[in-house]
Amino acid sequence: MLKTLHILGSSFLLAWQELKNNKLRTFLSLFGVTIGIFCIIGVLTTVDSLERNIKEGINSLGTNTIYVDKWDYSGGGDGDFPWWKYVKRPSPKYSEMRFIRAKTNSIAHMAFTLQAQGQNVVHDKDMIQNVALYGVTEEFNDIQPFEIQFGRYLTLSDMERGTANAVMGYENATKLFGSAERAMGKTITIRNKRVNIVGVIKKQGKSLLVSGWNFDDCVILSYRFFRTIFEERYSNPTIMVQGKPNITTEAFKDELRGTIRAIHRLSPGTEDDFALNAVSDFSDAITKLFANIKLGGWLIGLLSLVVGAFGIANIMFVTVRERTPIIGLKKAIGAKSRTILSEFLLESAFICFIGGAIGLILVFLLAQILSGPLNFKVHISYDILVLAVSICISIGLLAGIIPATIAARMDPVVAIRSK
């Protein structure tokens, strides 16, 4: 054990002396490793963080949830599906919910939603624009859970009677009233309809998901009151259906498809006139997309690492040549070949590790830049850090194996006489 520690200490000391005595040569050799680690870890970290943020947005759409709509959210499968066929499809209807629930055993929660984007909301002489209005039924919050920071959510009585009460997003409340808390009890006007604010949603933060629910900049109304302001057929009607926990998404989708086909009275040979958009399908598509992006990052980084490995090997060849008399003296006084081999391999790995550490520092700086002004959460996972250290050590060992082997096989007499 003591001998191993001595070899480690000796190798690190010699590597540090090499760095101090040949700064420019070492820097140029480490540059390839630094750039390689920065590319691989930087790309993996950024892509992993981007994937996490998007998946968080997708998961916010509801776990084991299917959106019944006439539009296919994936863009029509292979992209060749004519858009006019979607337009001709019937929109989901509120009246269909009763039949869907009665004929589908796998349903845990179901809600009907309407949307009106880009609306104006007025309070006295103040107005905010581009507000998303959502008209929802009783179980919407069971599928799309969010916290109410001030006040309360819409009650069952609000939903059934269609009262002029609303829940407002945090950002909208702040813009219109100066602070979210001041929105409580205030009255706003939407298309000449007066609405009372009974609750403010807790701030959600920005999401990278292009589509979905924007609870920071919204006003949530009951479905029945929403219909007094907007026509249902022009408000993107959608049925949200959440399956029971013990039901797989595919089984749930198959059962739901059979139910809706029966409601629409479609014959066995007729194609669906509706779309079942499962949240899990979006997540799977994102995983496949980012797998390809990660592969590209690996290819770019590996190219730099190959260049860096040759640089490290060059350092070790020069080091072996400069220390040839010392190697001969060590072997003459009893040092074994495996000890010499271990010293040079560890020295090579240490030098490579320094290059990788510089690359990791650059990645951390990049993470700070993205996490701050760009409001983008960067996750540097433990697995990625372990991967970086493993790559550095592996590249160092591979780059130093040939020079270390040459040093270990030297004849002590010839080595001592060399200059």
The helix-strand sequence is HHEHHEEHEHEHEEEHEHEHHHHH
Structural class: alpha+beta
Mean pLDDT: 82
Strand content: 15-25%
**Count of alpha/pi helices:** 14
The oligomeric state is single chain
Low-confidence stretches: none
Approximately how much helix is present in the residues? Answer: 40-55%
Distance between the termini: 34 Å
Number of strands: 10
Shape: elongated
Overall description:
Helices cover 55% and strands 16% of the residues. It is an alpha+beta fold. It has 2 domains: 2-57 and 284-417, no CATH class; 90-273, no CATH class. Strands 1, 2, 3, 4, 5, 6, 7, 8, 9 and 10 form a 10-stranded mixed beta sheet that branches. The two termini are 34 Å apart. The relative contact order is 0.19. The mean pLDDT is 82.
Short description:
By secondary structure, the protein is an alpha+beta fold. It has helices at residues 2-21, 23-59, 83-88, 96-103, 140-143, 156-161, 170-177, 223-226, 249-263, 279-322, 324-332, 337-371, 382-408, 412-417; strands at 65-69, 107-123, 126-136, 148-151, 165-168, 187-190, 193-201, 218-222, 238-243, 275-278.
Give the topology.
Blueprint: H1 2-21, H2 23-59, E1 65-69, H3 83-88, H4 96-103, E2 107-123, E3 126-136, H5 140-143, E4 148-151, H6 156-161, E5 165-168, H7 170-177, E6 187-190, E7 193-201, E8 218-222, H8 223-226, E9 238-243, H9 249-263, E10 275-278, H10 279-322, H11 324-332, H12 337-371, H13 382-408, H14 412-417
Parallel strand pairs: 3-8, 5-7
Antiparallel strand pairs: 1-9, 1-10, 2-3, 2-9, 4-7, 5-8, 6-7
Helix pairs in contact: 1-12, 2-10, 2-12, 2-13, 4-9, 10-12, 10-13, 12-13
